[in-house]
Amino acid sequence: MKSVCKRTLAAMAVAGSFLGTAAQAGVVFSDLGPAPGAYNAKVGWAVTGSGSFGGTSFYSAHEFEAGGVGNLSISRIDLGISVIAPGDGFDVGLWTDNAGMVGSELASWKALTTLQDFGKCCELLTIDGISGLTLTGGQSYFLVLAPHTDAGASDYVIALNNQGVKGGQLYSSDGGTTWRSNGSQTIGAFDIVSRDGTSVPEPATLPLLGVALIGLWRASQGRSRR
Questions:
Q1: What pLDDT was estimated at residue 196?
Q2: Do residues 109 and 131 touch, judged by C-beta distance below 8 A?
Q3: C-alpha torsion 26→32→35→38, nearest 10
Q4: Going by DSSP bridges, is the β-strand pair 90-98/101-112 parallel, antiparallel, or unpaired?
Q5: Measured on CA atoms in the order 41, 141, 110, 53, is the torsion positive or negative?
Q6: How far apart are CA 75 and CA 193, in angstroms?
Q7: Which stretch of DSSP H or E encloses residue 170?
Q8: Is residue 83 a contact partner of residue 193, using CB atoms and an 8 Å limit?
Q9: By C-alpha distance, which of 177, 180, 90, 187 is closest to 140?
């Protein structure tokens, strides 16, 4: 497994085109827009350690439905994530969906970072070379982002998607022990790519109950200075 921060418009354009013609080439889920505006760079969900500017550790979880049919071998994930303070990086995981809450971890990638500054658009962080990870078409999962160290100074933002895709959005401020729901919200910008070449329909909205808005308030307030 390896992670690569894409630094060119050409590379970003390839990932950003998944909602178009490339949607026939193995995209299991995507809420990325076409290049050059693949996501909303001005606002997003906080992924921070307690040593950051906000003084709180925030984990962020985004519910999505895997498109396609049957078992799908995942090969790549692209994220619209930016940095305010790098600290010791952030972690990404794919988890099962347990009745609208984060279930069991399927895979994770540790101590990632990006050179994309918050508020600027629209490079993608790519996790590629993934092997041994299978999702099932039609089932819901969570993409989970966390500071690499709860007490660290890392301060990242996963941008909101600009395609109007909503899903269950959860947050945790106690190291992922307790998850709280923000309800159905505009989720972060990302895609999940399979090597199986399965055609995928438009991603579905996955509503959840709950009206807690602390996560979005934290993101919007904490990043408004830029």
A1: 75
A2: no
A3: -150
A4: antiparallel
A5: positive
A6: 6
A7: strand 166-172
A8: no
A9: 187
DSSP for 12-50, written as a single string: HHHHHTTTTGGGGSSEEEE-PPSTT--SEEEEEEEEE-T
Distances (CA, A) of 141 to 99, 126, 187: 10, 19, 13
Give residue 199's pLDDT: 44
Question: Whats the size of the chain, residue-wise?
Answer: 226
Per-residue pLDDT of the chain (226 residues; tens, 9 = 90+): 333 343 332 333 333 333 333 333 499 999 999 988 999 999 999 999 999 998 999 999 999 999 999 999 999 999 999 999 999 999 999 999 999 999 999 999 999 999 999 999 999 999 999 999 999 999 999 999 999 999 999 999 999 999 999 999 999 999 999 999 999 999 999 999 998 765 444 444 333 323 222 233 344 444 433 3
Per domain, the residue ranges of the chain are 2-223
Name beta bridge partners: 40. Answer: 160
Distance, CA of 143 to CA of 152 (rounded, Å): 21
Q: Tell me the HSE value of 56 on the side-chain side, using a 13 A CA sphere.
A: 16
User: Token pair of 81, please?
Assistant: 């994530």
Q: Is the dihedral of CA 194, 140, 16, 87 positive or negative?
A: negative
What tokens appear for 193 in the block?
């790519």
* Residues 6 or more apart whose Cβ sits within 8 Å of residue 83: 113, 114, 115, 116, 117, 118, 155, 156, 157
Q: What is the DSSP letter of 69?
A: S
The residues facing 136 across adjacent strands are 71
